[in-house]
Specification:
about 20% strand; globular; about 70 residues; alpha+beta; 4 strands; about 15% helix
């Protein structure tokens, strides 16, 4: 599979959803957009016009798998 350049991805049609883990923590939230073909975008809800991280679906699945397995627990 050829690498995909995601640096100039158009996110204007992204439908952002707040993480269910965000709770009522004063706005420290992560939002994810999974409605765009071939990408998953992540942004900070406090800065919706700021930069977003963009992942391929397989990268996102690998990250979520690591979270579920506790790979990032300190």
């Amino acid at each position: 599979m050829e690498p995909k350049d995601l640096t100039a991805t158009d996110l204007t049609e992204a439908v952002w959803k707040k993480s269910s883990r965000s709770g009522n923590n004063g706005g420290n939230c992560v939002e994810v957009a999974a409605n765009l073909p071939g990408i998953i975008a992540v942004r900070d809800s406090k800065n919706p016009n700021g930069p977003a991280l963009v992942f391929t679906p397989s990268e996102w699945r690998a990250f979520l798998g690591g979270v579920k397995l506790g790979e990032f627990d300190a």
